[in-house]
Amino acid sequence: MASTQQVTGGAILIAIYAAVILFFVIRGALRTKNISDYAVGNFNFSPLFVGLSLAAAMTSAATFVINPGLIAAYGLSGALSFGIVFPIASLISLVVLTKSFRRHGTNVKALTLASWIGTRYNSKGYALFIGFLSVLLITFIVLILVAITKVMSQSLNISESWMLFFVVAFVFGYMMFGGANSMVYTNTLQAIVMVIVAVILISSGYPYLKDGLFAFFDKLATVNPDLVKPTNPGSPLFRDFFEIIFAQIIVGVAVVCQPHIITKSLLLKKESDVNRYLVSAVIIQALFYSVVFTGLYARLTFPDLASNGKPLGIDGIIPAYVVQVFSQGWVAIGIGLIVVLGLISAGLSTIEGLIQSLSTTITSDIIKPLIRKQATTDRNYIMINRIVIFGMALVSFLAARSQLLHPNLSVAIFAQNGVYSFFSIAFVPIVFGIFLKSTTRNTALTGSISALLVYFLVYYLFPWLIRTAGISLGFFDKYFIGKVQNPAIAAATAITVSVLISLVVFYLSRKPTPEKEKLTGNIA
């Protein structure tokens, strides 16, 4: 429980922070006249600001709060997965995919990922299909709400249900008006705070590291020998190198195929800004990814994963660590308050991008094509967008409250199930559309549908076959015998299968060139 000084200081700091965010929201709202302004803005943004905004959007509360909690529970195996393999794969994918995606998106003036896919394959139906599936990303909003609520409730000693209500009302309320014009600046502010906090959290383990890395691992081994092994058979996520390396490489490459990440480059007005944008984003993002190692410090702080005799859930470990470590003396309390602000910033930066991109997708790619005759003015679409955000707020609140009361290991599992299924479906149309110029709609749609079917078959049918029907699936058996499934297994399988199927369809549907036709005629 936070001290009186921590609660008072935290309340004052959060109030100031909220006021600064509202300043940028009001400033951006005054320039937002239509749904295009809301989606990609009408300011000439600095590439550095957009790069910081991207890094902040990619770094959710999962990176600063949830994933370190999993690493605290399962040790080095989790650190390898979330701290090394996944970051390398995602950063390389970000650089490779961004330039080509932006070039096409700028040419067709795409506002969303769904509209990019729709124009790339000249199919309004395909855009509508992706638009509907984008709703799966609400699960990620739920994860962030849970993380922010955990941090703030422990810092201010307020019940989680009431804190969740306040967070939802504030964040969704200001996102009804801000959009891209304000989000770049709020994300930049949040990224700056997060940089400071990342350095503080990474260095907070000095007391454990001062005797050297080997001594640090010895301390972890004393708590539990499995914490220093590269694989952890007793965990539900890091049992072998297939989960830790192969699955995380595929997930890391595909994670960029989310609306709030890959569409960020559309905020740039000039092609010459892209390199500076990517350099700033990659450097800052690499620093943010390193925060997950804080989970190892947290495990040494709470060897039995309990505080004051009460068990800490996975999602509550890092908030408890911050309150515990930064509680002695005014200087430590001040640093702790900045850390709390950084954890909140990590959540807000991503949730802003998700609300903005998802509400724009629902408005532009689902509602607009269906009621084009009934709503023809920019003002009407802005109002519809705000109604959509209100609906998202209601659904997110109910789902987040359920996760707070009845988590299945961690809210990360709930969120990953939605997010991983979505980018599995979006992977083929984006990657094939960028690198295989002659890809047809049928090829891309085959990839999306096969990924959709394979993902949910693996995640829901395979466990039933193994646990209930008693049917062995060989290689997959060990991943589905427990109560918790790893969404990365389903995602890696779905992406691999969909890519292979789509490649077969792509090569079978290619039209022969005149040279091939002539050669075929000669042979005949």
Describe the structure in your own words.
With 524 residues, this protein is mainly α. The protein has a single domain, classed as Sodium/glucose cotransporter (Up-down Bundle). The chain has 23 helices and 2 strands. A two-stranded antiparallel sheet has the order 1-2. A hairpin with a 2-residue loop joins strand 1 (306-307) and strand 2. Residues 516-524 have low confidence and may be disordered.
What is the gist of this entry?
With 524 residues, the protein is an all-alpha fold. The protein contains 23 helices and two strands.
Could you say which overall geometry the principal axes of the C-alpha atoms support?
Answer: globular
**Whole-angstrom Rg:** 23 Å
Bin the strand percentage: under 5%
CATH homologous superfamily, by name? Sodium/glucose cotransporter
Terminal Cα span: 84 Å
CATH architecture classification name:
Up-down Bundle
Largest sheet: 2 strands, antiparallel
Mean pLDDT: 85
The run of helices and strands is HHHHHHHHHHHHHHHHEEHHHHHHH
Q: Roughly what percent helix? A: over 70%
CATH class: Mainly Alpha
Question: Biggest sheet: strands side by side, in what order?
Answer: 1-2
Structural class: mainly alpha
Number of structural units classed as domains = 1
Q: Number of DSSP strands?
A: 2
CATH topology: Sodium/glucose cotransporter
Number of helices: 23
Provide the low-confidence segments as ranges.
Answer: 516-524
